[in-house]
Amino acid sequence: MDARRLATLRTIAETFAPPDARIDRLMFYAEQAVDGLSPGRNAEFNQLLDLLALPMRLGEGIRAKILHLLADSPVAKLRTGFATLKRLLLFLAYAESEPGSDNPTWARIGYPGPRGDRGADDVSLPYATGNSGDRIAADVVVIGSGAGGGVAASSFARAGKSVVVLEAGLAFDARSMGQREIGMRDTYLDSGLTASDDLGVAILAGATVGGGTTVNWCTSFRLPDRIASEWASEADLPNLPGELAPHYAHLEKELRLAPVAKHNANNAVLIDGAKALGVHADAQPRNAPPDCGDGCGYCGMGCAYAKKRSTARAFLPDVAATGGAIYARARAVKINIEGTRAKSVSVEQTVGPNDVRQFEVAANLVVVAGGSLRSPGILARSGVSCPALGQRLFVHPVSAIFPEFDREIDAFIGPMQSAYSDAYNYRSGNYGVKIEVAPVHPGLAANAIPWESREKHAAAMNALRRSAVVIALARDRDPGYIELDNEAQIRYHVSPFDGENLLEGILGAMDLAFAGGAVRISTLHNKPIFVERAQWNKARRDELGEQLRKIGIASNRQIFFSAHQMGTCSLGSDANMSVVDPTGKVWGYDNIIVADASLFPMASGVNPMLTIMAMAGRVAEQHGGTLERREPQAPEATEAVAEAAN
Ligand SMILES: Cc1cc2nc3c(=O)[nH]c(=O)nc-3n(C[C@H](O)[C@H](O)[C@H](O)COP(=O)(O)OP(=O)(O)OC[C@H]3O[C@@H](n4cnc5c(N)ncnc54)[C@H](O)[C@@H]3O)c2cc1C
Is 190 in the pocket of ligand 1 (CB under 6 A)? Predict the structure, then answer.
């Protein structure tokens, strides 16, 4: 970034951030983040800085007013600009830190920062490094090591096949998980900055060994029967629910699913509220031990105690145990296809700052599991073209409220997502919202909390310890899509139908939070709406509903989140409507299969990890994988090695 733009960005940071923020350090990270943006986004960001260069030379009061005007501008692009700046700079203001130098804002807001202890690291995966020009041979090459890729790789390894896993993200063992939000730069897709093209939906997706399962919140649901039946008829796969059943059973054992022994205060709000209202709430199964997380709360930054059953812990060891290889920081650039057959995958592995190695992995079977946001691009770059590729992107848009209590909640401590309510679900057929809670650490909270002035924002952050975070997660009916160009832009807007469910979800979340003891609640609109408990009655609820409808769901008038991306290479029995056939094989190709969330024909309506794993296990089984462990074959005997040698 040139000096003039850097100066403008610094002035904007000084206008947004609280006085105790370390502007120099914030700017260090901000500059890196902007430089890391895709060329298109980088150009847009620079244009925004050029637009603000003159206004940012005015006095602080005027600058703040100008920025706030952008927040609620009728011009969508200006609201997007505000959202870009606010989210980046306020996240960094509260998240930047490093060992031995904690963020000074934490003392003010009472955030404890990382714990000093560490658990045992009983599984250390061996990682492989390629050499430029190598041609490595395997039976199966798996692109992506997340929920789907990890399970598929294990399934083939258990069947005795030689497996190579390519993971674009970095590798961390438990002891190197830093419990710092700034570490999201290294473990989340696009350094945590992914969003829909107009930033209307802030998107979280894991990008490290284990993918989303390394940083996710452990909630592990089966697909509800009513939605499984809908999928079966949508994809014209009547046997799908029955075929998934043994995979769920296998996964539940491997992931050691169990509810928590004790809810933290944030989850207890939901349970208590539902009890007081006489509506549904329950505990959910999690892939962590029941006593896990008492005093922790850092699953979103990777488990430092080696307890969460991520794919890196539960499934990738099968690859290592059967002589396979896992390559981290190894991006699959393209699949090399001859006719209808994939021959190999071209890989770029970053080994050091000036050491990027290019090699090929030849295999009989290529498994695409880069996640819904990346798998369609991998296929498109390889020459696969079909009308449904990249289409039908579902994201489970999430809206949140910040209920304040007269006691400490510490939503960032304890098992993070252990309770849910379906009290407001299924309001339009199989559509509605699931109410859950979220573990919000200061960076993410600062990013989400509306900004009207630095003083008001700092005051809201001062109440963080007394705030719960309740979310309404919509099963979206109306999908978006991914651009199949290099930038893989995410085109997604919350539709009026899904928006109406979210709006009812906000009201439902408020019912539960007030019944659970909240004294005041703030919405996440750019001009936040505050509601006091004493006012919460039917008339105020109706009035608020009207107000929310009037504001509507236009992008960047309020923040929506997504941690669940699904679809884009959907499974189906009609080649014109889907990307892969009922077995998971890409239509028209002999040996390319898809095994991740992109298979979903529709949104799952529940947190999707377990279903992604079950779908990947089912697809792998149809192509020679197995749930049972078999004796490994000698790699020399495999077809791929023989073929690669030719
Ligand atoms: C913060 C957070 C909390 C969540 N909480 C829950 C929860 O509690 N319960 C739940 O059910 N779900 C949860 N999810 C969602 C869940 O983790 C994801 O839906 C799931 O991991 C997606 O699985 P996947 O296999 O499709 O992709 P991912 O798990 O995202 O894995 C894809 C992997 O492929 C890699 N990749 C991409 N492109 C390439 C390439 N070209 N070459 C090599 N590698 C590539 C990526 O780096 C990534 O690691 C959460 C997600 C997040 C981010």
Answer: no
